[in-house]
Design a protein that fits this description.
With about 90 residues, the protein is of the alpha+beta class. It is built from three helices and four strands; from the N terminus they run βαββαβα. It has helices spanning about 15-25, 50-60, 85-90; strands at about 5, 30-35, 40-45, 65.
């Protein structure tokens, strides 16, 4: 499942949110990372539907909104060498 991006721009207590997300990560439920100062990426690893609803409610309650205009290129496996260049080496 690809990750979703969330803005912390309006979040009143980032430390509390970070602690909560870290606890979910330690339980193996999610993986999260900072994309920049105000944006995080959350990847659902093994949340149940109920846990997913709880996480979404928690994010909403802390004014953390999903960001839709960020392109996720983490699954991009492109190499600097094009396919043609690789075959020219032989």
């Amino acid at each position: 499942m690809p990750g979703k991006f969330y803005s912390l721009d309006e979040c009143p207590d980032r430390e509390k949110v970070s602690d909560y997300l870290e606890s979910l990560e330690e339980e193996g439920k999610i993986y999260f990372e900072s994309v920049d100062e105000d944006v995080i990426k959350i990847i659902d690893v093994s949340l149940t539907p109920k846990e997913m609803k709880e996480l979404i409610r928690y994010l909403d309650d802390n004014d953390i909104l999903e960001v839709y205009d960020i392109e996720d290129d983490s699954d991009d496996f492109e190499d600097d060498d094009s396919e043609d260049d690789i075959f020219n080496d032989f």
